[in-house]
C-alpha cells in the first residue's frame, strides 16, 4: 500500500465514476422524466405524476407506432433467421467454387444495399413493386440488408455441427428437411437466437428505411414516429417523448433478458470443436 | 437379418482418390465381420459405401439379396454407430434412442416404450432423461448402440466403435459388444485399426490395404498363416519376426541357421522367413532339431510371458516369447526352435506366402 498505489487506485475510481456518470445520467432521465409533471431535457428530482403516461396513450400515433415496430421487427427477425439458416446450411455443406469470396462480397455489399447510397434505387424499386407503405415490403428490404452478416455468423455455427450427426439421421431414414429441422436447427439454436436478437434490434433502431418506404404515418414504426413528436411550434413534445422513449426501450431489454437467460450463461452444448 | 454382398465395388472421392478399389466380399447372415487395416486403407469408406453415405463409382452392393447400390441410406434398413457416436446433444437418451422410430412416424408412447426396453437391455436404465453431455464415454457408446438396435436394421455397421474409450473400458465394452451381437444375431460389420480388437470380436476378418482385401479369414487363420508380409506385420501384438533368407535344396538358410523348407516351385531363392515370437521355443543347449542360434540382448516382461530379443549371426535380431520363470539371462547363448509348421516363407519380391518351413 505505497502512496503511489493509493494514488493510482484513486485515479482509477475517479475515471470509472466519470465514465459511469456519462451512461447513468441519460438512464436516470429515462427513469424520472416520464413521471415528472413538468419534464425537461435536464435531470432533476421529479414532481411525480402519471399525466404524461395518459397523454402518450391518448396520442394518435404513439402506441400504434410501437405496434407497427413490433410487427416490422418481428417479421424482419423471423425472415432473417429462416433465410439465414437455409443459406448458411447450404453454404456450409455444399462445395461451391468461390464460396468464401461470394460470402465476403455479399457482406461488403450489404452495408451498401440498405445504406444511404442505395436510397433512391430502393425507393424506385419498391414503388414499381407497389410495396410502398407495406410493412412486409419494408421488412423484406431490412432482411435483405441483414442477411449477409447473418449468414456469415450462422455459417460458423453450422460448420461446427459434426457431419456425423446428419449422416446418422440420414441412415435412420430422415429426409433432408427432417435432418435440418430435427438435428441442425436445434444444435445451432444459440446461433439462431443471436441472429434473432441482432436482427430485431437492428430493425428496431433503423430510421432511414422505414422513413423512406412507409409514407403513411399510421404505418410507421416507433423510430420514425419519434421524429414527429413535436408541438405546433416545432419544438420537442416533452410530455410524450419521455414515456414514449421508455416504452421504446422495453422490447429490446426484454428480448435481451430472455435470450441471455436461455442461452447466455447456461448453454450446455454438445459441440466439440 | 441379412447377408451382405459386395461385387467389384469401387469408391472414388472427388479428389480422385480410389479409396475402395474393385473389392468383392460376401458376408453371411448373422456374421460378425471385421474390416481391419491401417488408417487410409479404405475400410471406413467401404463401410460408408455399404451404408450409402458414399456413392459407389462402380460395382454393386447387395443387402439380403436386394441390390441397394443406388438406394438412399435411410431405405437400406441398416443401422450405424459412428466413431464419435453422433448422439444428438439436444435430445435426451430416450429421444436419441427413439429417433429412428420418430422418423418413421411411430407414436410417442410406443417410442418411449421401445426406448425403455432397449436402454434397459443395454444396462442404461435410469439414464433416460440425461443428455449425452451428462454421460460417460462408455454410456454414450451404449446409447449409440441402443439407438442402432432400436432402429431394427437388418445390418449393423460400427465405425471404430471402441476407439474413443479408454483402455480399461475398451476391454469391458468389447466383451459387451460380442455378447450383444450374439444375442441379437444381427449381421454386423465393424471397422477397426486395432488387430487385437478384430481378433477378439470377429467371426471373420478382412485385412485391407490400399482399397483392396489382402487376406480374408477367421481370426486364427489370419493369425497363424498371414497371406503376405503386410498382413504378418499388421497382425499380432508382438511383431512377427521377418528375416531375409535364401532357399537351396529343400532347405532355407536364414540368420546362420539351416531349416527344412516345405515349398515347391518358388519363383526365386530369395525369400523372407516369418515366425511369430510365440511359436519359438528357447533352449539353453543345442537341440537336435535345426535352430536359430544367438545371444540374448534384451528381456522385456509382458506379464505371464517375456519377450526375449536374440542377436543372431549377421546382426539379425529375432524375438521369442518365453513363459514366466524361464527367462534366460542377458548375454547368454540360446537356441530357438520354431514349432512344427509355424515357420512361414514369403517371396521377397511380392511379399506373398510361399509355404511353410521348419521341422
Mind explaining what this structure looks like?
The complex is a heterodimer of chains A (273) and B (359). Helices cover 72% and strands 0% of the residues of chain A. Residues 265-273 of chain A have low confidence and may be disordered. Chain A has helices at residues 3-32, 51-58, 62-93, 99-113, 119-129, 135-159, 163-171, 176-187, 189-205, 208-213, 222-228, 241-264. Chain A is globular and about 70 Å long. Chain A is mainly α and 273 residues long. In chain A, helix 3 (62-93) runs antiparallel to helix 11 (222-228) and helix 3 (62-93) packs parallel to helix 12 (241-264). With 359 residues, chain B is α+β, with helices and mostly antiparallel strands. Helix content of chain B is 24%, strand content 36%. Chain B contains eight helices and 21 strands. Chain B has a six-stranded mixed sheet with strand order 6-7-8-3-9-10, with helices on both faces. Chains A and B meet through helix 7 and helix 8 of A and strand 6 and helix 2 of B.
Query: Helix coverage percent of residues of chain A?
Result: over 70%
Instruction: Describe the sheet with the most strands of chain B.
Output: 6 strands, mixed
Overall structural class of chain A, as computed from helix and strand content, comes to mainly alpha
Radius of gyration of chain B: 24 Å
Q: What is the number of helices of chain A?
A: 12
**Helix and strand pattern of chain A:** HHHHHHHHHHHH
Strand content of chain B: 35-45%
% residues in beta strands of chain A? under 5%
End-to-end gap of chain A? 45 Å
Structural class of chain B: alpha+beta
Q: Judging from the principal axes of the Cα atoms, what is the shape of chain A?
A: globular
- Average pLDDT across residues of chain A? 86
Average pLDDT reading of chain B = 88
Helix content of chain B: 10-25%
Order of helices and strands of chain B: EEEHEEEHHHEHEHEEHHEEEEEEEEEEE
Largest interface: A-B, 24 and 31 residues
Oligomer type = heterodimer
